[in-house]
Amino acid sequence: MSALSGVGVGRGIAVAKVLRMPEPLAPPSDEPLEADAAAEHERVREALAAVAADLDARAAAAGGDAQAVLEAASLMAQDPAILDDVRTRLDGGANAERATWDAYAAFRDMLTAMGGYMAERATDLDDVAQRVVARLRGVPAPGVPVSDEPFILVARDLAPADTATLDLDKTLALVTQDGGPTSHTAILARSKSLPAVVGVVGLLAAAADGQRAIVDAKAGTVVLDPDDASVAAARAEREMRLAAASAPVTPGALADGTPVPLMANVGSAKDAPAAVEAGAEGVGLFRTEFLFLGASTAPTVEQQTAAYTDVLRAFPGKKVVVRVLDAGADKPLAFLNDAHEENPALGLRGIRALRASEQILRDQLTALAAAQEATDADLFVMAPMIADREETEYFVRLGREMGLRSVGAMAEVPSIAVLADQVLEVADFVSIGTNDLTQYTMAADRQLGSVAALQDPWHPAVLRLVKMLGDAGAAAGKPVGVCGEAAADPALAVVLVGLGVTSLSMSASAIADVRAELLTVTREEARERAARALAASSAAAARAAAAAR
Ligand code: PEP
Ligand code: MG
Questions:
Q1: pTM of the model
Q2: Where is the active site (predicted)?
Q3: Is 255 inside any structural domain?
Q4: Residue 271 shares a structural domain with residue 376
């Protein structure tokens, strides 16, 4: 029995066998073709047919959105133009793997150049190419493994495309060596209600296929080869947590009745049903860039109006906070971030990128104003990465010019907390993005497993900035919410409320646990816990101090 630790995402526990995600294939060698070109051509043809058949079978089993994605991939494997191109390359002396790899790369470049929908499909070709080359090489295809038995997926990290094809009936938990608690892998795991532990140092050296493991997301631990007593204890704890999560759905409040609205983070209208079911009192963060990740040209006003109206319609009479496009760093958008930057997290991202392409921002605000008029949701619009009062004034002025009623700023850059009083004179509200606020306060890349320990919103430096924002909000009489992943940690949610935060927004799957925890403390107790955490000298000490009686 051996235990590893990382950063937990969610509160669940899973007990199952480990299944490892294959590493991506190394590119083929440039060795010239030594075999007969016609025979190699036949071998590639067979590999393509087998990959297409495999993708079709997966598509039929997957259903829903994943089915369409996989069927499209199967068609890409059957395209006769690919096979013709492979033949030309074989005749030119390339080996079979290299010829296939390059044929797909040329096809991908062609689609990218076409722009629009075709360009969005270009990256899917890489996955097909990897599958075909894996078959030629006689090794397992990369991508999410398939199993008839439930399993714990162990990977270096997962791409969003991998999670699209995850079989949720079989995948009980995710464990990754890379990635921090706020990486988008973690966010996706949370949105699918999968327990996960990320940033587990030494994971890939320790975990083997078929090994039994316990994953405890709340504790942030992975126990490999647990004994039977540990397994029994984990199963009992799992039952207890499931029972707590199914308590009645009520509006968020503290034990003394102080309301703390609990809102949902969404990426599109598809996330709305889960949010409504979890009792979300509205949307605290609609990440609009999720709709356009992969697009090579800016979406039209009409496309955007339709997408935003869909989301707003799902929350009649409720507050919906929409963030304008947050392009750059971990969420690049080709039509907003075209320059190469050494440090994209410190580059032209968020409001900076939008200002540099103001027509794109104007189009988005126009579409949001149209959605506001078309629905009876209470629309709030905010900009990411606002640093100071001048940027706030710029965005608020533009928002009002476009007819928006409530315009605010996200607090993600530490300077905004230091200048919170000035910013709240101008903004109608502030929403704290603790993921980026932590990244920038601690100078720790949120996507890097090796610094995941520093990427901890419990750090008193981050909590002190939250307090500055909470105090400024109270003085100005304006709302200050939290929409970063910190809001989804029940113990931290209490501390945030104690620091003056007025609402919490999180993945729908986290709402039940946060609701249950808030109901156990009064406002006074929340403030006491916050004061103890603020006085601590490390994230771990803050966690322990808040928990101490
Ligand atoms: C954040 O930074 O906390 C946030 C909510 O935005 P994102 O995670 O999308 O960067
Ligand atoms: Mg952010």
A1: 0.68
A2: 184, 483
A3: no
A4: yes
